[in-house]
Amino acid sequence: MRALQLERLDGPEGLKLVDVPEPEAGDQVLIDVVAAGVSFPDLLLTKGQYQMKPPLPFVPGVEVAGVVRSAPAGAGVKAGDRVMAFMMLGGWADVVAAPPGMTFRIPEGWSFEAAAGTVMNYHTAHFALHRRGRLKSGETVLVHGAAGGVGTATIQVARGAGARVLAVVSSEDKAEVARTAGADKAFLSTGDWVSQVKEATGGRGVDVVMDPVGGDIFDLSLKCLAPEGRLLVVGFAGGRIPEVKVNRLLLKNVDVVGVAWGAFVMQEPSLTAEIAKGLAELSDKGFVEPVVGQVFPLEQAAQALRELDSRKATGKVVLRVRQG
Predict the structure, then answer these.
(1) Between the N and C ends of the chain, which has fewer C-beta atoms within 10 Å?
(2) Is 89 found in the same domain as 77?
(3) pTM value?
């Protein structure tokens, strides 16, 4: 089968389309892949900058959507089902073997492209807001990187929880993407968004900040928190890992909360089914509608990664592996 293999830690340029043997099913769900998500962990993996450092060569790709070829007993899906799945590696290939507990049916009416960007982003958003952020109906959430895959997912999950959502983005085009995803207001990161957030909340600040960017965004976000607010640390797309003087947390009665969905579900796998149920309910109510950005053919994955790296991407960037 075809697979995109990373042969050198040179970023996107280290990828090569190769022929490799199909995976053995074993106790996994064997999936004929139609579309695969392109994520920030994929980009970091190609540079050797992710916390997991698999030996070369390996096939990147953390999430896929396709059709089940075979499934073990008790998997919850069966041959012929349209499914989406999460896996740490191996998704950028014609066929994958995915964990049964991380494989879910695609809701009616969704495209394979939409499903390919769902599991990681929406499970992360739900875990961040509910399990770690203790979000309550009526609270206000501030979302950074709000036009990207995680950002648009967070907007929708927050809206589904009854929250008001403010978005911070880098351009007016991205502001429109965030508003379309459900944000009540969108502010440009190039402007004085801290003052705008304060004004939009009557000077009180926000209850929850979703921050996948880090760096200066993190520092400024602390100024936006209301009393007992929670700043959710999801990643460092901006490149700098910030530090915080804990006296600022004490004086303002605020929390800085770490969010690592992937690591947590390895320790507590039962959480996956719980989150999947919550997301299915939000989908039924019309809150969860994945925002698909650019779609590239499998062989152009390097260009897809460059779109992420340049911060040009909106919605979820997806690879088309075969016609569904």
Answers:
(1) N
(2) yes
(3) 0.90
